[in-house]
Write the structure tokens for this entry.
Amino acid sequence: MARAVRSICIVGGGTAGWLTAGIMAARHCSKSGGGLQITLVESETIGIVGVGEGTWPTMRSTLKKIGISETDFFRECNASFKHGAKFAKWATGEASDFYYHPLMLPEGFPSLDLAPFWTDYSQAHSDAPSFSDAVCFQEAVCELGLAPKLITSPEYAGIANYAYHLDAGRFASFIRDHCVKNLGVRHVVDDVTEVVRNDTGDIDYVGTRKSGRLGGDLFIDCSGFRSLLLGETMCVPFVDCSDVLFIDRALAMQVPYDHEQSNVIPHTVSTAQKHGWIWDIGLQSRRGVGYVFSSQHTTTDAALEELRTYVGDKHRGLQPREIKIVSGHRQTFWVGNCVAVGLAGGFLEPLEASALVLIELSADLISNMMPLTRETMDIVAKRFNAATQYRWDRIIDFLKLHYLLSKRTDSKFWIDNRDPNSVPESLKEQMELWRYRAPGDQDFTSSQEMFPAASYQYVLFGMGFRMETRHQPLARDSDVARRAFAQNAALKVKWTKILPKNRDLLNKIREHGLQKI
Amino acid sequence: MQLVELSRSEHAGLRIREDLVEASAANQHLIPIVVSEFRKAATQYPIVFAKNPDTGRFGSYVLNGLNIAENLFWSGTQMDVAYVPLNVRRQPFYVGTANELCVDLDSPCLDGTGGKGIVNPDGSDSLYLTEILSVLNQLVAGQKTTERFIATALSLDLLAPLMLDIVLEDKTPLKVQGIYGVDEEKLRQLDGEEISRLWKSGWLDLIYSVLISMGQIYNLIRLKNQRISLSRAWHDNES
């Protein structure tokens, strides 16, 4: 007889655990008796890593889907708006070196590809605007520190596409309260003392200190770097990716604002350093700043000096937290009745904020493909593994692209990053194609795609990469392109005039809230 | 606008031209109203909800036009309607943040030739000022109730954007954006208990006033078409 899948046990209560619980519970009606029963067990004693503070725009639909008010989210999670990322000193390391990876697609994309037109123009004109500035109005909005919407915009609706910066600790407890109060998730606060498998190899139950055995038809491992279920219990090996991505340490600190009402930078600032890069993320009440570097190339002390120089003398007293990063992921992600989400599945480095989005995508995928019986679970597991492996590979390619294109020569870190032996074959192939034509949707054909072709365009051209356009078909409708560039210029004028300062909008949301409609 | 606290002594000589009071609405396509006005307003205007651009909060309004700053009821000298909202009739007087009575010294209705004064020769409030105070009282009292009504409507998801896609007689397409109305579908889905609560609080009446007032949109379209044909006739004559 087929064994129905009725109950899910999530181990670990960080962002991964609670987001997964929320996404599953909302979709599978855990509140009503007929839905899936979801239990989340989290330890009182193990803290959460909690430095993941940047999201993708997907977080808007995730929060909406699980029934959270965006106003509450802003008020409770110290959250702020994010238009995308500004990369400083990545290409040459000079003071004037920066580019944007905004969250909106280039004007007209993908039916119109402005990249060849911009390439030709920028080669003929030394004063040409940057690629992102020429094709998207967000760079101009970011440079002025403006928000992506108005106080009259409904919750989750934007004038510009946006994501969030958030306080990961507060975010986890905010989602937890919602899951427990409104979504019918059972919350067990206890330490897991053992994970016991049955004779088929499936996990039978997790034993806890005070709450006895917690069973489940499916176990979701959200235990963080430890990977208690998938790694330790199911013995799925770890695939090390440090031969491609060298970052293995982070020094994180919380930097106060100069004034309570200092503007909140509406984008992530990523500034390349000698042996890595520094993230700078504006929340409402503070900045989150951290240096991720390669311990193969420098020492923690030297990195700390670079970080201190970045934050300035005023903040010399701040003590950073050091986090070890083992760059890589598990060989598979779903084995038997156990699937890992979040750090338990793997982690690369914080570049391009891929951690939270991968949690959302994984939880969505599990939720959408939820096997109804244990017998069909292995089929779902196989598909989940293929999709998730594909996603990790694309993230690795995309992150590596940032390093590969750098012209910095000031340290072995940057030079080693361009060593062809450290570049995945899949990325090499793409780079070969892109020598002659810009990244397009045809280069990314999976339904599990992570970064849109436009993101590759922003990074490629932002980093100073130039295509040879001479082999491209001549029949180009440059009138259409001219109109699209003009349209972007008009949008820049319009929105830089209308959009409010990021801080002002955040204050207004605190005071008045956003309307649902 | 230049608001100052009204002083019965200092401003004893103020004269107000009542015939200019309604001119303040000449270019207003939205005029705020309070719930106590809904029934009367519904006989003349569409009642809509719109967001305050500074706070994003909803308020209730009568809709006078189909374009920004268009008041189709403005005849050139007055509002050609049977009911003029309190927010027009109160001109040029306001209530300050500390609940004090204020006057807008920039208002065109302050005019030496005006027929109305604020105090009688014996220094007591004139009948005119007493009426103004009553209008202002209704507005202040109505403000809170209106906010509560809107909060209730929002909590029940009863408000929804109004998508007005109009094609005028001369084929001009017109999209009116940023206004909200009652979502009839959602109203129908409320259970008996909720309807009963709305009925007891008197808010069901208001909801129906808003729903019925929607028919006044056709009056606005009629007035707009009239304006277009008038202006066409004018231009035809010229040529």
In short: The CA atoms of residues 334 and 382 of chain A lie 8 Å apart. The first helix of chain A runs from residue 15 to 27.
